[in-house]
Amino acid sequence: MPSTEDQEQEQESGPPVRRSAAPPGFDDPDSWRHNLTLDEVEEKDIGPVARGVEIPAMENSALRLLMLRDSLPDLDSAGHRELERWYIDGFAEAVMCGDGYYLKVCKSSSGIPVGLGGWTVDSSSPAKDPQGGQARRRARDDRHAAQYRRDWFPAAVKGERHRLISEMLKQERERIIGNLGHVCCVDYMAVHPLFQRRGVGSWLLQEICDYADVQGYPAYVLTPKPEAPFFTKFGFYNVTIFDSEVGSLVSMIRYPPAVLDG
Questions:
Q1: Within a domain: residue 255?
Q2: Alpha-carbon gap, residue 136 to 187, rounded angstroms
Q3: Nearest in space to 161 (alpha carbons), one of 82, 241, 245, 86
Q4: Is residue 213 part of a domain?
Q5: How many structural domains is the chain composed of?
Q6: Cα–Cα distance, 194 to 34 (Å, whole number)
Q7: What whole-number distance in Å separates Cα of residue 92 and Cα of residue 231?
Q8: Contact at 8 Å (CB) between 103 and 38?
Q9: Which of 128, 104, 125 is nearest to 36 (CA)?
Q10: In Å, how far from its chain's centre is CA 23?
């Protein structure tokens, strides 16, 4: 039960993230034996969630291989540790300094995180998310938020390729959502490999879609092509497919029911 202060803060910054009474998509009864819980990511969760979910989930992803193709063959153990630290610092910056909402799924018996979902509300207008992200609410009262800014790049990674591809992906995102007003952009969707295909990702994505529907926002995601059918189940459809040397990436958009019905 949130305190009065917490309730006032939520009312000031907009509606809280909706909580499902039961996770949709858990069609396999065996999944429930893990007694999973869903909650917001807090500062103390940054390391465990990044190390335990984000990094294992992205290990063989097409997007990671595309960004790091020229660097991975030459990475030694120290280089891999440096890259891991960079990922963790990037997640910390997103959670503590950005405008986003971040959710974790954990095993209730141990608190070990097994899933991560995160989104920001982007806009073609000067104002960003009018509701204010969960991180913005925290950082507003955090005088030390600047300590979470990631201002370094791993020396073992070839930065020029990473920069060029990052810019290409940014331009693709802006091209798709540029005239749509406020758009709920899926930035994080990761499930630990041992917990995949058990409904964890469906639970997280349903939360994101429900948030977008309540606000009346379209939703956007850029995902490797093999993962596109998962998003299609939630109403996303392909806008652009572009090929790379390590696989295809798909830009996908989803409109809220109010728009489709209108």
A1: yes
A2: 16
A3: 245
A4: yes
A5: 1
A6: 12
A7: 26
A8: yes
A9: 104
A10: 18
Closest CA to 60 of 48, 72, 47, 51: 72
| Cβ-Cβ contacts under 8 Å for 6 (sequence gap 6 or more) | none
Residue type, 109: S
Q: Is 134 part of a structural domain of the chain? A: yes
What gap in Å lies between CA 165 and CA 70, rounded to an integer?
Answer: 12
Nearest Cα residue to 65 out of 162, 143, 144, 155: 162
Tens-digit pLDDT profile for residues 5-34: 333 333 333 333 434 333 444 344 454 545
**C-alpha torsion angle, residues 205, 253, 178, 152 (rounded to 10):** 40
Q: How far apart are CA 253 and CA 235, in angstroms?
A: 8
As a whole number of angstroms, the distance between CA 178 and CA 183 comes to: 9
Q: What is the pLDDT of residues 108-142, one digit of tens each?
A: 888 999 999 999 998 754 444 555 555 555 554 45
Residue 3 in tokens? 């305190």
Residue with tokens 């540790």: 81
Q: Is residue 251 part of a domain?
A: yes
Structure tokens at 211: 């948030």
Q: Cβ distance 114 to 106 under 8 Å?
A: yes
Q: Which two tokens stand for residue 188?
A: 């994080």
Alpha carbon distance 34, 105 (integer Å): 11
